[in-house]
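ok here's the first one, seq then struct tokens
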Amino acid sequence: MCADPSADTSLNPYRRPHTLTDVRCYRVRSAPAARVAADNRKARHHMPARYGFLSTHPPTRCGLATFNSALVTHLSAGRPPGGVVRVTTGTDDQRPAPGVVHTWSGRDAAGWRDAAAVLDTFDVAIVQHEYGIYPGTDGEQVLPLLRRLTVPSIVVLHTVLSHPTPRQKSLLEQIVAAAGAVVTMTDTAHDRLVVRYTVDPEKVSVIPHGAAEHSGAAGPRRTRPHLLTWGLLGPGKGVEWALRALAQLQDLDPTPTYTVAGRTHPKVIEHHGEAYRSSLNRLGALLGISHAVHFDAV
């Protein structure tokens, strides 16, 4: 719940927000804009925020799009409608899904200007960040967009690299500097960011990824230990390490089984076909555990 600013004079509506609660409670503006909005400030504090989202989004098939879609649904419940600025590539289905108010094509390097203008029509901009989804080297075109925004921004980091290139490290540091608040999904990513990168740790919060509630009937209880990996499949998933670990557990009684559930990521198929999935099948055979591994392309 947002604090009542009138009840605590230490809460300064002009400071940069550091947490998601801060962003919900305060509208950060430049001093001239704040003076123009002075008459409406008190009313704004008590109005639900309208969120603008920048991300890949359905019908694009990727984990980021799925996450953003779920986040939009959750944050829009019982609130004024928000809107999605959808980022696409040339191979994506360009038909906009409901809720998409603008499309930023990856083929338009200068498209960040229009995208920023649309996000500025909302109260808060929530930006999903992954290196590969925005135009420019390492997705660098998201940076001028963040700097152009006049509304508070929350950047959700889906990847914090352990061994970034100097360019990737510098870019992420500048993104954190430009953002009003930053979210990582694990404590590991948080610690990696504040220790290995030059960033303001006060800006960074951890909000776990979460998962949808299970609404179906419970399945039959298994008699053997069961490992599960789910989601779109690609080299970054690390399934090969799980297979090697499973091979070390074959002396257990009963022996574990392993299900790899999910289709291959469309971008992986576009560039490499099913080479990764095939390599996993070969590795399972080499390790002698094919009988214990089930690939389910749900």
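and now the second one, same deal
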Amino acid sequence: MAAQSQHNDVEASLQSEQSIESRLLKLINQPIEASQRLDELIWMRELVLVPQKAAPSSQDLNTTFHELLLQATSRLSDWALALHLYVNAQSIDKRKELEQIRLWAQMGHFESANQAVLRHLLRVPLDETYHRLRHDFSRFFAQYPYATQDLTDGEIHITPLMPHHLDAFAWQYADPSIQKLCNLPDFESNEHWLKWLYNDQFDPEKTVFAVIHNYWGLIGSVSLTVHEGIGMFYYWIGSDFQGYGLGTRAVQCLLALGQKYHRMECCYAKVYEENTPSHRALAKLGFTELPFVMTGPEGIEVLYYLGPLQSTDRLLSQAATMFCDDACYELLPCSSQIFIT
């Protein structure tokens, strides 16, 4: 009886391993809808982090299982789990160490990436690849104005949006409502996205950030424009991660950066009438609804303000400067509201 039970356990284990391998290969090789991604991310985390759900002989992540998981994380742009796998690997060669450094940077942990480079150079002082990385990081830090603690709010942080975020951005941006509610482009290709990012990066008044969750990776984006002390921002969070207050926390980091690093004295935001969650978020952030709205081709947008008390005329003038650079847009009063006079 004991021998039969042991045989059954081995057979069940083999079937479990085969099922896991089959699903991982499907993730790697077959198309996946954005709506399916979160379920797959949860499943992979259960394999790695919940021992009783992993294949019995794979709990220590044998080589084949480990490599399949890494390929699946790459396919799904799951940089957070990939980084966990590399950090906890029993052994790591130069290729994997370089990948780990890339993932630290991908997640916005530039100091950790730089420290890994410096540690390697202590062991191998003449490694040209790592000397180039050290030079790249030195140049990056020379131009990077932000202190790490100013970018972080617990489990999330913001980091400048960069070309290496393209794939992870695309997974979250797949929800068409994001484009509509934020008045962002319908990106037709990778090149279109890179050109948009390039133009934003070289606008001295604008900064675009990725919102990174320590456990899930890139979950959205926030952007701040500051013109002569007047700020304007937008944000969006992918549909899988909405409703948890993560966008509000990311915006709090963004507004603090605006004041500390960009001399922002006040800030405006605009929200479509039907976007109820964003109205609630702005109220929670301390913004006040203004006594006028903006009309445009896509509909009516409600305007919000955060800052020192100003006259309605001054608020109207500033809002026109920030929002109405196109003849298609117009500010109209709301007769039902009374504001500062």
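notes on #2: The first strand starts at residue 152 and ends at 153. The mean pLDDT is 88.
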